[in-house]
# Entry
Amino acid sequence: MKIGNDNTGIANKVVTNLLSKEDWVIEEEEFKKKTKLDISKESLKQNVKDGDTNTYTLNILNVEKNPARIVKVEEELQGNAKIKKDSVRILNSKGQDVTNDKNIVLKKDITDKKITAIIDNILKDEKYKVVYDVIYDSSETENNVKTISKVRGLNTEEKQIEDTTNVNGTIKDTSLEISKKSDKKEVKAGDINTYTVTVKNTGSYDARDTVVEDVLYGDAKYIKDTIKVVDKDNNIIDKSKYSIEWIDKKTEKDENRFKIKFPIIEKGKDIIVTYNVQYADLEETQEIKNIIRAKGTNTNLAEPKEKDGVKVISKGVIKETNVDITKKAEKQEMPAGKKNKYTITIRNTGDYSARNVHIEDIVSGNAKYLKDTISYDILANRFLLPVNTIVLSNAHGPSTFCYVGKYKIADGYYVLACKEFYNYHDSRIIIYMYNDKQDVVTSSLLVGCHDEFLDVDSEYKDGTITIRTTYKKVQHGLDPPEGQEYVQKQLTRKYHIDDNFHFVE
# Structure
C-alpha cells in the first residue's frame, strides 16, 4: 500500500495494485480497529531573543496493539516567528530521516506558519518525530510564540498539544525631537509666564526611559502645581506613566530645574508638558534663560535648535525705598571771616536702590560756599572684602560702570571694587589695588563675569583670592564635527597681595 497525491492535492487516497478485491475488504476491516496515540512536545529553548533560532520536536507514539492508519499531523505557529522550511524533517524510532520515504507524505505547501504531514502506518510502540527550526522575528517588545500540534489517524482520536516560548525583545534605537516655546518674550518683575515643551518620538521604535530635563537660569522659579502632561490630542497622561523630580535652587550658583522620566514613549507619539514660571521681584531688567533637553536609553540627545533655550526678558520694576539725610558742622560757633566744614550724609535705609537722588543745600545769611572745597565719597562705609564669595549679578540696561565698595588693607592702600554692565545685560566685577598716597591704580583683577563667552566666580579666604574661569566658546580644532565647533574649558588661578601691594599670581 502507498499514499499518493491526486491532482487536487488531497493526500488520503488509498491506492493498491497488488491486493485483490477480497484483500481490500479485509484491509478496510483492519482500518476500523481503534488504537491510541500519545504525543509530546519539546523545545530546545524556552527563552530566546529576537533573531534567535530554536528547534521544536513533536513526538508521536502508538501505545496500543493495532496500527494507527493514515495519521495526519498539523503543526501551526503563532506569534512573531517563522518556520524555516528547509529544516522540516521526520525521524523514525531509530532516529533515521524518513522525510522522503514512500510511506511519508510531507505536504509541499509548507508555509512560514504551518506544516502538514501524513504518515501511512504507525505500529505498536513505534515512534515518529516531526522536527523543525523556527527563527524569531526582530521585535522591540517581549512576546510569546505558541505552537499548536494536532495529530489524528483514521482509527484514532485527535490529540492536541500546545507549547509556548518566551521571546525577549531587543531594544532598538529610535529618535527624539524636542521643542520649547514661551507665551511671552518680555515680562515684568512678578509676572507669570507659561512654557510649553513638546517631545516627539520620530523613530521607528518605542523610546525607553526617556528623561526630559528643564533648567531655569536667572531670578525666576517654577510654580510646581501648574505642571501638566498631555498627548497631542490634549488628553491628560496618567501620572503612573511618568515621574517628576524637582531640584530647587539652594545657592546663588545653583539653578532651578526639574527632571521628568517616561519609561515608554511609543513610536509616533508626542508628549506635551506645560508649566508656569514666576519672575522675581526685580529692580533691574535681566535675561532669563530656559534650557531643555531629552535623552532615552535608546535615543539620541535631543535639544532645541536654539542651543541656549528660550530667552525671556524680565523687566525690572522700580521699588520705593527710604533715604535718611543728616548734616553736621565741624564747629558750632564761628567768628566772622573764618571757615567752617559741613558734612552731609545720605543713607539708603530701605530695601531697594534709590534712583536719581537729588541733593540740594542752601546757606542763608552772610555765608557763602567755597566751591573748591566741595567733595563727595560714594564709597564711604561700603566694603567688598573680605567675603567668602564675590557674588555675580546679572543685569540688563544701558552700559554703565560704577563703584561697588572699598576695603582698606594698609595706611594709604585700598582694594576698590567696580562693577561694569555692558551689552545691555552682561556684567563683570573688577577689583583694583589703589595707592591713595599717589592716587594711582597699581594692578587689577577680573573676579566676576557673566556673559556669552565667560563665567568667572571667585572666593576670598585667608588672604588668597581663588578665581575660577569657564571659557564657554573655545575653538574645537581645525575641523571640528558639526555641532561641536566650540567646547568649554576651565581654568583656576590663585592670587595674593605682595609686600608692594600688587596682585600676584
